[in-house]
Amino acid sequence: MKAIYVTSAEPYIGKTAVCVALGKRLQADGQRVGYLKPMSTQPWRTPQGTITDEDAAFICATLDLGSNCTELTPVIVTPALLRQRLKLDKQDDLLEKIQAAAQAAAQDKDILLLEGGSSMREGYAVGLSNLRLAEVFGAPVLVLVKFHREMQVLDDALSASLRLGKQLLGVIFNHVPAEATDFIEDHARPFLHGRGIRLLGVLPSVPRLSALSVGELVRRLEAQVLTGSYNPQALVETYTVGAMTLEVALSHFRRQQNKAVITGGDRTDIQLAALETSTAALVLTGNLMPSPLVIRQAEGAGVPILLVKENTIETVGRIEAAYGKTRLAEPEKLEMFLELMDRHVDLAAIYAALDLK
């Protein structure tokens, strides 16, 4: 069974997006693709009430892998399961469960995509570290590293190499700002090459890819939409809290494009100021209804007003928890990321390592 194991140095840096893009590209090239996320630490309840992993369910649907998406995450580590496992000396039964699921997922497939843990630290407590799983499957490991600082990006790549050794296929740097490109190409790439680490891709920072759709915002905030028709696929690239004076708010709002403005339902001045600028959604907190004037202005501008019960701090917390994950449910974002992978990742080297055409 041919397989590739995709993991990351830290959570929320595009691991699932890379799996989707690889799967799509492999399918376009005539490969029969299977997928498995051996372990998840983020239980998610489907509309039918089943516990699974949200990212795995998304990939299953996007790659059209059939109706049994919940079987593609055989181990879901809930708080209860963790406590149970900590009392046991033997943990190999979890591995056996994963191997059985992998066999089923790989049946009649040319290549199995394995989505690993959300960081290089994850899984040791239950005997399912990235290193152990990659060794069990004999799969080369592709590691995603987010660019924060020059030294950090190198340290994360070196750390992955030290942990994985010969299992490491290579690294992909993600969220790389334009100003860091020269450092990556002139210094980081030759430095890593000299240490036997392949830099297989450098994905630039594209804020629109980590944007939330308005529909996702409505769902996550459990919001009531006060305006008429709206486009749930419209993207919110950033957000700001309208808790300042009107003059400061206007100056601030004009500098941000496609934003969500979060403010109290009683701040009519801030709401009207937001509607004068590039605003994708107006989020009103505290379950306070806005004035009819604001609703009319919003409908005229095509800006949805989302009313939420929580206060501003709680609402911001929910939004922050959602941002940073590169969700590709919107066709525009999926096509954009596929193009980025084609342009900035050495797919030929990955195919060669997997002995694929």
Describe the structure.
The protein is an alpha/beta fold and 357 residues long. The chain has 2 domains: 230 residues, Rossmann fold, CATH 3.40.50; 113 residues, 3-Layer(aba) Sandwich (Udp-n-acetylmuramoylalanyl-d-glutamate--2,6- Diaminopimelate Ligase, Chain: A, domain 1). The chain is 42% helix and 20% strand. It has 14 helices and 17 strands. It is globular. The model has no long low-confidence stretch (mean pLDDT 90).
Gyration radius, in Å: 22 Å
- Spatial strand order of the main sheet: 2-7-1-8-9-10
Strand content: 15-25%
Query: What count of helical segments does DSSP give?
Result: 14
What's the count of strands? Answer: 17
Form type: globular
Tell me the structural class. Answer: alpha/beta
* Number of individual domains: 2
CATH class of the largest domain: Alpha Beta
Task: Sum up the structure in keywords.
single chain, 357 residues, alpha/beta, Rossmann fold, Udp-n-acetylmuramoylalanyl-d-glutamate--2,6- Diaminopimelate Ligase, Chain: A, domain 1, 2 domains, six-stranded parallel sheet, five-stranded mixed sheet, 17 strands, 20% strand
Secondary structure topology:
Elements: E1 3-8, H1 15-28, E2 33-36, E3 39-40, E4 43-45, E5 51-53, H2 54-62, E6 75-76, H3 79-86, H4 92-106, E7 111-115, H5 130-137, E8 141-146, H6 150-164, E9 168-176, H7 181-193, E10 199-204, E11 212-213, H8 214-221, E12 224-225, E13 235-236, E14 238-241, H9 246-254, E15 259-264, H10 268-275, E16 279-285, H11 292-301, E17 305-307, H12 312-322, H13 331-344, H14 347-353
Parallel strand pairs: 1-7, 1-8, 2-7, 3-6, 8-9, 9-10, 14-15, 15-16, 16-17
Antiparallel strand pairs: 4-5, 11-13, 12-17
Helix pairs in contact: 1-2, 1-13, 6-7, 9-10, 10-11
